[in-house]
Amino acid sequence: MDPAPLDLWITLHGEKANDEVIRDAVRRLRAEDARIRVRVTWEPGDATAFASEAAQMGCPTVVACGGDGTINETLQGLITNRRPSSTALGVVAMGTANDFARACELPVRDPLAALQLIHQHPPQLIDVALANGRPFLNVASGGYGAEITNETPAEIKRMLGGFAYFLTGITHASTIVPQEIAVSAPDFNWKGEVLALTVANGRQAGGGFQVAPQALLDDGLLDVMIIPNVPWGNFLSLVGDLIEDPDSVDMEHVVRLRTPWLEVTAPAGLHVNVDGEPLDDNFFRFEVLPKSLPLHLLPGIDILSR
């Protein structure tokens, strides 16, 4: 007799393997007759391999249990060769910043609530963004912001959470070097020195920075923000506004656009952080795969257009 089909395949970050709160949440969901398989990551790439295996088995939902990096790795196993996924993604946010989960109004560090949401609410189709062909769900950041994300020590992130990124940014302020880039998109061209560039499918990154407060996950568009080389005082003010009141950001010092694709050229090279994954190149193409991933979300949240 063939085994009963699975309801959920949970990919659990290795650091969380002995977390009793997660184990209890899984036990309680199984007691509600949910058919669950759990796999624990050991090394980079495991979450991608597990997601691919689950999709090939026909499992309806793969759950990424960990931080934004675990979500990103899982996504790589669901979206391949630019093809939409028929397997849904669920998120149990147990990381440091949990930016994507927070913007999607998902439970954070509450495994039982997150698993119950996944089990009870059907998935909804959302867009997936691509950076030079690599899928991502949330935000790609270039320039100063990407360097700060990369340089913030893991142990500091564990102690201070999202504030760790801000603290690292302030302590590295004297090292800011503007970078020359050229950006092209439909009916848009821009060239100059930038302090930061963000290309967003989601809304926030870096532990609470609202880089795209009006972004929607299903509109087929990327929300782009360019912060040109502005005086240091103006830059600090912008950083504060992105945390406290993103709608009040002074548009005199920021360039924004919404676009289905854009290309960025950086003669001296550009470091880009793509949902926690570093990319370095002289040329980047960002684009959208519209409504290509089923994601378990609460109905009616404002990050969806419908």
Automatic annotation (TrEMBL):
<dbReference type="InterPro" id="IPR016064">
    <property type="entry name" value="NAD/diacylglycerol_kinase_sf"/>
</dbReference>
<keyword id="KW-0443">Lipid metabolism</keyword>
<dbReference type="GO" id="GO:0005886">
    <property type="term" value="C:plasma membrane"/>
</dbReference>
<dbReference type="InterPro" id="IPR045540">
    <property type="entry name" value="YegS/DAGK_C"/>
</dbReference>
<dbReference type="Pfam" id="PF19279">
    <property type="entry name" value="YegS_C"/>
</dbReference>
<keyword id="KW-0444">Lipid biosynthesis</keyword>
<keyword id="KW-0418">Kinase</keyword>
<keyword id="KW-0594">Phospholipid biosynthesis</keyword>
<keyword id="KW-0808">Transferase</keyword>
<protein>
    <submittedName>
        <fullName>Putative lipid kinase YegS</fullName>
        <ecNumber>2.7.1.-</ecNumber>
    </submittedName>
</protein>
<dbReference type="GO" id="GO:0016301">
    <property type="term" value="F:kinase activity"/>
</dbReference>
<dbReference type="GO" id="GO:0005524">
    <property type="term" value="F:ATP binding"/>
</dbReference>
<dbReference type="Pfam" id="PF00781">
    <property type="entry name" value="DAGK_cat"/>
</dbReference>
<keyword id="KW-0460">Magnesium</keyword>
<dbReference type="InterPro" id="IPR005218">
    <property type="entry name" value="Diacylglycerol/lipid_kinase"/>
</dbReference>
<dbReference type="InterPro" id="IPR017438">
    <property type="entry name" value="ATP-NAD_kinase_N"/>
</dbReference>
<dbReference type="GO" id="GO:0008654">
    <property type="term" value="P:phospholipid biosynthetic process"/>
</dbReference>
<feature type="domain" description="DAGKc">
    <location>
        <begin position="3"/>
        <end position="135"/>
    </location>
</feature>
<keyword id="KW-0067">ATP-binding</keyword>
<keyword id="KW-0547">Nucleotide-binding</keyword>
<dbReference type="InterPro" id="IPR050187">
    <property type="entry name" value="Lipid_Phosphate_FormReg"/>
</dbReference>
<keyword id="KW-0479">Metal-binding</keyword>
<dbReference type="InterPro" id="IPR001206">
    <property type="entry name" value="Diacylglycerol_kinase_cat_dom"/>
</dbReference>
<keyword id="KW-1208">Phospholipid metabolism</keyword>
<dbReference type="GO" id="GO:0046872">
    <property type="term" value="F:metal ion binding"/>
</dbReference>
